[in-house]
Design a protein that fits this description.
heterodimer; A: alpha/beta; 5-stranded parallel β-sheet; 5 helices; 22% strand; globular; B: mainly alpha
């Protein structure tokens, strides 16, 4: 299963990539929204994990664009106090969300749950 | 030729004469001096270009050095974050990092990476980051920052120590909650709450400087949402000589519904500061008893229009039929803006409120016809 992660903090991105790779997923990383949209087009991932605050195109734009054409599960990562934005993400079709700071083990449980549904 | 000479004369008058060099200055500029000036100008320009070049080259070198270190550190920190071993055994540190960490700048890069990750992670990963910070003695760098004269560094040090949950620094950070530097003070207050929860509110006993609206929002956000403790000093804060402490204490009463302090909040309705009275009104609406509505209405006449409107908005939530006469007297005597709010409150609280307003329209069309229309719209 291929997962695309869009996260602008390089260390966070590397951590998420390594965590999910160790769990047997194929991972594609991206550190900005524009690049993420391009990689989604190219690599056709089975799941997307995206931060809301990204340079060039936001996580919301990614959710909106992806959900228009494909039925890919999307997990949104948000900062504390972005409840309104999370609501908007759900409105656009996001499947799950996690508020930072979050536990990596919890994220991997949520990934597994969504992966089963795919 | 005519044009040329007239142009020259106009030019020399308007430019040279106006800036007071005069014709003497021009006559003194022989070709030797002119060459020297041009030469000096070129030398200065070259020096400027060289300085800019070396400055940019140095900046680029530092950037590349930092980038290289970051790349190496990222791999090592990522592996450490994902360590599942729960024993307290020390993390493996590659020997090259031990050498690298003799440089202060390299240590700071590592601290920044750890801090940034800690902001996003919880659970085992966050614990690993704290253990790593502790193991590498990065706390000494953060503690050193607290001694700096640069307030930005002090604030950074506070943030690092609090995020890394270094409780031993509480006393040092507590002293900074009353710093004259706003950013240091704000950061220290947030750190104290982050490290000790409600207990940290004891800084309210000593703070002499104002607590801004933004800071109070951040402090309230940081406090735990349940398990309220250590509020025994609330009466003291409600009587503080610093009015912003009183406002913050009233926000605490409202957010955590501290019913036992109802009387002390009522006392704040007589405070000389309008903002304190405003937040006292708002706090009372969160901890209202059956007497609260009539207490608020007895203070009504002495209040500013903003506070009067707030009282009328709030009593709708907890007022009863008993306050109908007080509301009617307000409607009889107030200005149209207050009459409107009082009419809405009356219609919502009293079962005969609408009938009373309809009667008023018959006696006095203006402004009661419009008020009644508004009230009906509000009730829909």
């Amino acid at each position: 299963m291929k997962i695309l992660i869009a996260e602008d903090e390089p260390l966070m991105l590397k951590t998420l990539e390594l965590k999910l790779r160790r769990e047997g997923y194929e991972v594609v990383g991206s550190c900005d929204g524009k690049d993420a949209l391009q990689k989604i087009e190219e690599s056709q991932p089975d799941m997307i994990i995206t931060d809301i605050m990204l340079p060039y195109s936001s996580g919301l734009e990614i959710v909106g664009q992806v959900k228009k054409t494909r039925k890919v599960p999307v997990i949104v990562l948000s900062a504390l106090g972005q409840e309104k934005t999370v609501e908007e993400a759900f409105h656009l079709g996001a499947d799950d969300y996690m508020t930072k700071p979050f536990s990596l083990n919890e994220l991997s449980i949520r990934v597994k749950r969504l992966a089963k549904a795919v | 030729m005519i044009f040329d000479s007239s142009f020259r004369s106009i030019y020399s008058r308007s430019i040279l004469l106006d800036i007071n060099y005069g014709p003497d200055f021009l006559r003194s500029l022989n070709s030797g001096k002119l060459y020297t000036m041009v030469f000096l100008f070129i030398i200065c320009t070259l020096i400027m270009v060289a300085i800019t070049y070396f400055y940019l080259a140095r900046k680029k070198r530092i950037y590349n050095f930092q980038k290289k270190i970051k790349e190496h550190l990222e791999i090592w920190i990522t592996k450490t974050i994902l360590e599942e071993d729960t024993t307290d055994e020390a993390f493996y540190v590659p020997p090259k990092f031990n050498r690298l960490f003799q440089h202060k700048d390299a240590r700071q890069i590592a601290i920044d990476e750890i801090i940034n990750s800690k902001k996003s992670l919880s659970g085992t990963a966050a614990k690993n980051l704290i253990r790593l910070y502790d193991q590498m003695d990065f706390k000494n760098d953060s503690l050193e920052k607290l001694k700096s004269k640069d307030w930005e560094l002090v604030a950074k040090g506070i943030q690092e120590l609090s995020l890394m949950e270094y409780n031993k620094a509480i006393t040092k950070i507590y002293r900074l909650t009353n710093s004259k530097e706003e950013f240091v003070r704000d950061e220290a207050q947030l750190a104290i709450i982050y490290l000790s929860g409600f207990k940290g509110l004891r800084f309210l006993n000593v703070v002499k400087y104002p607590i801004t609206e933004w800071q109070s929002i951040k402090l309230l956000e940081m406090l735990p949402h349940s398990g309220v403790t250590d509020m025994q000093d609330l009466p003291k804060w409600l009587q503080s000589s610093n009015y912003t402490v009183v406002v913050f204490a009233l926000k605490l009463v409202a957010k955590f519904q501290q019913f036992e302090f109802h009387d002390q909040v009522v006392a704040c309705l007589a405070h000389e500061n309008e903002l304190v009275r405003y937040y006292a009104i708002k706090a009372l609406s969160e901890i209202a008893t059956e007497d609260t509505a009539s207490i608020l209405l007895t203070h009504f006449q002495n209040e500013t229009q903003r506070n009067q409107i707030q009282i009328l908005k709030d009593i709708v939530e907890f007022g009863s039929e008993d306050i109908t006469p007080l509301l009617i007297s307000i409607i009889e005597n107030a200005n149209p803006a207050i009459q409107l709010k009082a009419s809405i409150a009356l219609a919502k609280i009293s079962k005969n409120g609408l009938a009373y307003l309809a009667e008023k329209v018959e006696k006095q069309v203006e402004p009661f016809e419009k008020i009644l229309a508004h009230v009906k719209y509000e009730l829909e």
